[in-house]
Design goal:
With 297 residues, this protein is mainly alpha-helical. It has 14 helices and 2 strands; from the N terminus they run ααααββαααααααααα. Helix 4 runs antiparallel to helix 9, helix 10 packs antiparallel against helix 13 and helix 10 runs parallel beside helix 14. The chain binds geranylgeranyl diphosphate.
């Protein structure tokens, strides 16, 4: 990964942090505690992988950055809500997220529940309120896309399968089905929403991007499983070793650490192949794919 890529990432992360700061309700506006907790859950943490994918796809599609900021914020708010709810005692019951106490530990369970609810609705409010595409029908498609990716046929459905699979032996296709929904759906949506903010991609090109998102979303999860085994809590900013402790089926439990690494490499290679026709315009997406597979946290 080039120095140029690192400065692209840093510049987008810094600008996007300010965008989020401005879009979230102020902590001094009632109900103050809920607003403060929403800001706690979203700001000052996270790699912002999904927004970066949206920016890269937006660049490929010639989109205006200010429009992609809104689409990326909507996706990141859904992601932040999912983490808050996932960490609660009724789900994964974790105390550490993004190097800080989880939302329900810092505040309380009822507040964490409402933080998730409010972040989710704010995401859709942003997509509905801001002008994201000159074609209103396309903008409506964007709302539908995020709703489908987040709901019971997307991320929340994947989470339901995940919760039901604890202590069970899943086959590889079953594990893949779960992760395509739980982790992959939102990653795909981030890429497509970024591209939808532009105007110049054909349906075939959108399908290619979607396929890239599917492969890189799975690769993200395979790497997540490897890191859960190999990295430490301080590096991850969340509790390491949770999957084995919770008797969860993972790519590592199914394939072993080397098999899982090989699978990530294969998905990475296939993901890059789907971008071939885009040439230099897809360079940022390629570099993000490299980052996702090579990341250490
Ligand atoms: C509660 C509806 C609902 C869904 C939860 C995403 C999710 C579904 C649960 C998170 C549990 C988990 C560890 C999933 C594995 C992959 C993943 C999404 C990791 C966290 O995403 P990162 O690494 O986090 O992008 P940061 O903090 O960098 O944003």
């Amino acid at each position: 990964m080039s120095a140029d890529f690192h400065s692209w990432v840093a510049a987008h992360q810094a600008r996007f942090e300010e965008v989020l700061r401005g879009l979230l309700p102020r902590a001094d506006v009632a109900p103050q505690r809920l607003h403060e907790a929403m800001r706690y859950a979203v700001l000052d943490g996270g790699k912002r992988v999904r927004p970066l994918l949206a920016f890269a796809a937006g660049e490929l599609a010639g989109a205006d950055t200010a429009r992609v900021d809104i689409a990326a914020a909507a996706v990141e708010l859904i992601h932040a809500y999912s983490l808050v709810h996932d960490d609660m005692p009724c789900m994964d019951d974790d105390v550490l997220r993004r190097g800080k106490p989880t939302c329900h530990v810092q505040y309380d369970e009822a507040t964490a529940l409402l933080v998730g609810d409010s972040l989710q609705t704010l995401a859709f409010q942003l997509l509905a309120e801001h002008h994201l595409n000159d074609d209103a029908a396309r903008q409506l498609e964007m709302l539908k896309l995020l709703a489908a990716a987040s709901g019971s046929r997307g991320m929340a459905g994947g989470q339901a399968i995940d919760l039901a699979s604890v202590g069970k032996a899943l086959t590889l296709p079953e594990l893949e089905f779960m992760h395509i929904h739980k982790t992959g759906a939102l990653i795909r949506a981030a890429i497509l929403l970024g591209a939808h903010c532009g105007a110049n991609l054909t349906d075939t090109q959108m399908s290619r991007l979607d396929h890239f998102g599917k492969l890189i979303g799975l690769a993200f999860q395979v790497v997540d499983d490897v890191l859960d085994c190999e990295a430490d809590t301080a590096t991850l900013g969340k509790t390491a070793g949770k999957d084995a402790d919770n008797d969860k089926p993972t790519y590592v439990s199914l394939l072993g650490i080397h098999g899982a690494r090989d699978m990530a490499q294969r998905l990475h290679r296939e993901a890059l192949e789907t971008l071939a026709e885009f040439g230099a315009a897809a360079q940022r997406l390629r570099e993000l794919a490299d980052f996702i597979v090579l990341r250490k946290f």
